[in-house]
Amino acid sequence: MTSTPKLLVVGQLPPPHHGSNVMTKMFFSSLRKFGCKVSIAEKTFSKTMEEMGSYTLKRFIRVQVVIIRLVKIFVTTRPDLCFYFISLRPPSVYIDMMLLLLLRIINTKTVLYIHGKGFQRLLKRSPLMMNLFLESPIISSLQGALVLCEKIKKDVEFFIPNDRLFVLQNCIPDVEPQILKAYCEKRKTDKISILYLSNLFPAKGTIEFLKMARMVVDSGKPVRFILAGAATSASFHQKIKQMISDLKLKDDVETVGAVYDSAKERLFHESDIFVFPTQNDAFPLVNIEAMRAGLPIVSSNEGCIPEMVIDGFNGYIVKPHDIEQLSDRVLKLINDDKLRIKMGKAGRKLYEKYFTTQAYEKKLQNGVNFFLGLAGLKVS
After folding, report:
1. How far apart are CA 184 and CA 287, in angstroms?
2. pLDDT mean over 209-232
3. Which residues contact 56 (CB under 8 A, 6 or more apart)?
4. Exposed end of the chain (fewer CB within 10 Å): N or C?
5. What per-residue confidence (pLDDT) applies to 50?
6. Is residue 379 in some structural domain?
7. Which of 338, 361, 308 is nearest to 148 (CA)?
8. Same domain membership, residue 199 and residue 157
9. Worst-scoring range by mean pLDDT, 94-103, 179-188, 272-281, 341-350?
């Protein structure tokens, strides 16, 4: 029993900059505000987007470093509870299974932080590995799991009971009021700006965005398209350039590369519509960023997106790969100024209610207390 719980976080901090790493940083800093004794064992398997999913000697060495870190922290701090950010992408997920077994061996009560979706897919893709995982002592040491939304529960409740799952939505900090006021003075233009922003690779819907752009341009509407983000490979970057040329979009699509911090914020606030036709996402932070900026959103029926983009309220939900449906919804927003503004304001209100750091920290504290209770620890 303890009145000041000792918590261990196992996860990766940026770089690279993607949702799970960004939220590891947010999670760790928020826990420290609660008066808990918090340690972090950073599990850095990949330092760039290109390294993700690769089997290299560097990755093998990094795994040994993580093992040493875990054992050292356990010996020096003896944490009461561990929150483990598990990957759902091979080979990282298999390394995670090994590290979770180590935590079981050293008798550490563990809560999975499932920052994605894909356990059902893994079960079909690697049945032997998943069955070994499900039948291993790892499962008996799990106190439960944090998941991103109600829909994700269905992906994991075949091995973690529903009453041990706690929903913790992602968040982003708000923009400073004085900065927001300056951003709200949008650049004067006679064209409606349609923004796409993400790390550029096929599963994020980059190709679908460009095909939609061609259809919208063919409608004769005065629009400009902004493609923002870093390509994850030179070959895909070349493919994008070639596609823009083949579709005759050089005068309509502006590619701006990777943008961060104030440059990214200005890009959102100079745009009118945000489009993110992803094909494989759980809870993309970029949609929350668009809501924070007061933009209507057109995004996919993937993961938790329908719980953040309410179809017909603050944007539209479309089927992945459905270019005609995507184009139709974008054109609806282009053609109706009042609807565009109304949906943008609705998204901003949803952000203020559910996706600020204050909302996240309040729910996180409830989640920590929930899992401490399940672990039989005294809650301060």
Report:
1. 18
2. 95
3. none
4. N
5. 52
6. no
7. 308
8. no
9. 179-188
In single-letter form, the type of residue at position 128 comes to L
Supply the CATH number for residue 315's domain.
Answer: 3.40.50.2000
Token pair recorded at residue 226 = 């902004």
Q: How far apart are CA 180 and CA 178, in angstroms?
A: 5
CA neighbor of 210 nearest in space, from 193, 220, 196, 198: 196
Instruction: Identify the domain containing residue 256 by its residue range.
Output: 177-354
What pLDDT was estimated at residue 1? 41
Same domain? For 252 and 120 the reply is no
Q: Is the bond preceding residue 91 a cis peptide, omega within 30 degrees?
A: yes
CB atoms within 10 A of CB 59: 18
**pTM reported for the whole predicted model:** 0.90
Residue 66 confidence class, pLDDT cut points 50, 70, 90: confident
DSSP state of 91: T
> Distance of CA 124 to CAs 61, 93, 130, 158, Å?
29, 15, 9, 13
Which amino acid, residue 197? Answer: L
91 and 159, same domain (yes or no) = yes
